[in-house]
Amino acid sequence: MKFVKITTVVTLSAIALMGAAQVTFAEDAPAKNPTSKGIVTLTTGDANAVTPPIDKDTPKEDITNQPGPLSIDVAPNFDFGTDKIGVGTTEYPIKNTNNPYVQVTDSRGTGAGWDLKAKITEFETADKSNKLTGATLTLASKELQTTNPQGVAFRAPVGYVDGVTLNDSPQSLLFAAEGNGLGTWANYFDKGTSKLTIPGGNFIGEYSATLEWSLTTTPKAE
């Protein structure tokens, strides 16, 4: 009998201890999930790197091979074809077989912004015997393309859909305000509204002019 009583007491004590242990375990705070970090450091793009054209059909003569980190990658040539001379002022549209565009890359990574400008010389014959007096070239922006996966709505530069008439002083054609224009951007010109305007009274002949493109690191005021 005594053995049985002892056994009973020990058994009850064990149950009591198990209950106490279970209560203590239930009151412990749940373990926190571990954390870790991913770290990367970005620096300015390679000053010797050349950015290829966005458009695979870009004429070779339009490709500048200008190195970065802030560069004009494509500077378009414009062909106005052959047409009859007008009696009065006549507008001649762009007749390029491709869609002409200018491309800018900004891999500085600072968000400082930029301003793309162009100026033009007078149209004249190869022997410089004649000039197209009063002729003007107007370039109008049509659309933007970019390598940025977030698309053209994200920090895009701004072009001029109403057109800019060039002269011998640099005129802004595409600008990125501070915080915008990072990455590669192609600004396509509208072949329908971009035009060469020639007043009447000029001589027949083949004329050409030179466009000079430039990038300033200080963007124009919006």
From TrEMBL:
Residues 54-63 have a biased composition (Basic and acidic residues). It comes from the Bacteria. This is WxL domain-containing protein. InterPro entries: WxL_dom. Residues 32-219 form the WxL domain. Residues 1-26 form the signal peptide. Keywords: Signal. Residues 48-68 are annotated as: Disordered. The keyword Signal applies.
